[in-house]
């Protein structure tokens, strides 16, 4: 019964993020279609399902980089899931295949939705937050990729600001309720801003994830 309630809560809490997710998906489709083609863009969203990694990989390909470098950039961007995995591990139960399946539903939105404070996460809410986010990401990518010729440059529609705005919307609730979250967010922002002028794209975000260790130390 508790799992069912958690699943419904995750589904309900993810509903307000559907439109922003679609909009960010449209942005990805617009940028990716001229580089890798519309079909490949949709397939990439279906398989990878990570906006940060996908934008990083397509950015490298668009700049003339090879597939290996693009893949490495995507993997580098996704290393942020390592500390996120450590964070949710204590809240998962059951055999390893079940825990792995639940862990596969972790994206930035579901991670924020399932957080219950004090380092606790609702595993059922993680799973419940997945369906709407996944479908919205696919639909957005398809709309952007197939309509790239009509819509044109994402900056023309102001879509380029949606990605940071989306992440900020996920963060605001945490910052309001948790002093430790404010400390980690502040340290992460300082790390990222300090590295932006000197490092390749993606590195500041990954390095900023190290600030999560401060929160772990604080909690202990």
TrEMBL record:
One Pfam family recorded for the sequence: AzlC
Keywords: Cell membrane, Membrane, Transmembrane, Transmembrane helix, Transport
Compartments, as annotated in UniProt: Cell membrane
Keyword flag Ribosomal protein: no
Highest taxon of source: Bacteria
Parts of the chain that traverse the membrane: 21-49, 55-77, 123-145, 157-175, 187-214
Membrane topology per record: Multi-pass membrane protein
Keyword Flavoprotein attributed: no
Family statement: Belongs to the AzlC family.
PANTHER family named in the record: INNER MEMBRANE PROTEIN YGAZ
Name the UniProt record assigns to this protein: AzlC family ABC transporter permease
Lineage: Bacteria, Bacillati, Actinomycetota, Actinomycetes, Pseudonocardiales
